[in-house]
């Protein structure tokens, strides 16, 4: 029987790798980048556009009937229940400054939810990928979230809400609670990799607010398929539209949610 989700997962992997090849090639030559600002502290380079073009080219060739929502504006068909959500360079600020923590993130949704996804780190040649009901993988090997169940033992990741500074006080309240409750917090600057690292057990959990759907689509599916939970900060499933997320292994998620739901 045809496994359509597996086919879409393969497309997500190939598209992310195509975008990642652009990022890897241009990273060594980033000193000549042309950088513009979309908003305060929110940057875009010609590399973002080049990587997006490479991703979209794969999608249009392999699934031309599907729609596309991409950070830098690419679009596909408008009448499909399938929608690809693309971040061609998650971690643009890191890229500009020479910090090798950035990724291509791709997720596919249908009328039910997330179907397939990939997050590719070109600096480490790490391809995280998943499909609904099929598990999550790193370079083809199965991965899983940790089974940590207490915040005191947990290492979690976060990101600062630089696009929504009006929510900074509430975020800092949550941040302080996590600082006091956990064994450590990391802020690397690429939400898709934070989610991928949560899915493979490098982090025990992740929370952030003020995100866009392309920051979340690929990584959220990884966490869910790795045995964890991904919700918004109040426990709902509308994280792609709310832009807030709490992701963790199934045992830790409730403990994290007790903080985010109270503070945020």
Number of helices: 8
Q: Report the CATH C-level class of the largest domain.
A: Alpha Beta
> Remind me, CATH topology of the largest domain?
Fructose-1,6-Bisphosphatase, Chain A, domain 1
**Mean pLDDT over all positions:** 94
Structural class: alpha+beta
Order of helices and strands: HEEHEEHEEEEEEHEHEHEHEH
Q: Please mark out the parts with pLDDT under 50 across 5 or more consecutive residues, or reply none.
A: none
Percent of sequence in beta strands: 25-35%
Strand order of the largest sheet: 3-4-5-6-7-8-9
Global outline: globular
Describe the sheet with the most strands. 7 strands, mixed
Helix content: 25-40%
The whole-angstrom Rg is 17 Å
How far apart, in Å, are the first and last alpha carbons? 45 Å
| Corresponding CATH superfamily of the largest domain | Fructose-1,6-Bisphosphatase, subunit A, domain 1
Number of domains: 2
Q: Quick one: how many beta strands?
A: 14
Q: What is the CATH-assigned architecture of the largest domain?
A: 2-Layer Sandwich
Descriptive overview:
The protein has helices spanning 4-27, 46-62, 92-97, 168-181, 191-199, 213-225, 239-242, 253-263, and strands at 35-39, 42-45, 67-70, 83-90, 103-109, 114-121, 126-131, 136-138, 141-142, 155-158, 184-186, 205-208, 228-231, 245-249. It has 2 domains: 4-142, 2-Layer Sandwich (Fructose-1,6-Bisphosphatase, Chain A, domain 1), CATH 3.30.540; 151-263, D-Maltodextrin-Binding Protein, domain 2. A 7-stranded mixed beta sheet has the order 3-4-5-6-7-8-9, with helices on both faces. Strands 11-10-12-14-13 form a 5-stranded mixed beta sheet, with helices on both faces. Helix content is 37%, strand content 25%. It is globular, with a radius of gyration of 17 Å. It is built from 8 helices and 14 strands. It is of the alpha+beta class and 264 residues long.
């Amino acid at each position: 029987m045809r496994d359509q989700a597996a086919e879409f997962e393969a497309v997500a992997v190939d598209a992310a790798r195509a975008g990642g090849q652009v990022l890897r090639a241009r990273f060594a030559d980033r000193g000549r980048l042309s950088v513009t600002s979309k908003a305060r502290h929110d940057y875009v380079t010609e590399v973002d556009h080049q990587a997006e073009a490479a991703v979209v080219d794969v999608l249009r060739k392999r699934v031309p009937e599907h729609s596309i929502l991409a950070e830098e504006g690419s679009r596909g068909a408008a009448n499909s229940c399938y929608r690809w959500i693309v971040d061609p360079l998650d971690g643009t600020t890191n890229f500009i400054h020479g910090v090798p923590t950035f990724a291509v993130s791709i997720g596919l949704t249908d009328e039910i939810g997330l179907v397939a996804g990939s997050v590719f780190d070109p600096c480490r040649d790490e391809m995280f990928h998943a499909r609904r009901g099929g598990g999550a993988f790193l370079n083809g090997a199965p991965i899983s979230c940790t089974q940590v169940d207490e915040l005191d033992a947990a290492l979690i990741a976060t990101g600062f809400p630089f696009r929504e500074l009006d929510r900074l006080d509430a975020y800092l309240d949550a941040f302080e609670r996590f600082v006091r409750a956990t064994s450590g917090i990391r802020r690397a600057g690429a939400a898709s990799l934070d989610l991928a690292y949560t899915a493979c057990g490098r982090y025990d959990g992740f929370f952030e607010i003020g995100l866009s759907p392309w920051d979340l689509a690929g990584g959220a599916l990884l966490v869910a398929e790795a045995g964890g939970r991904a919700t918004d900060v109040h426990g709902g499933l509308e994280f792609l539209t709310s832009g807030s997320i709490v992701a963790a292994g199934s045992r830790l998620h409730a403990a994290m949610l007790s903080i985010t739901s109270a503070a945020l």
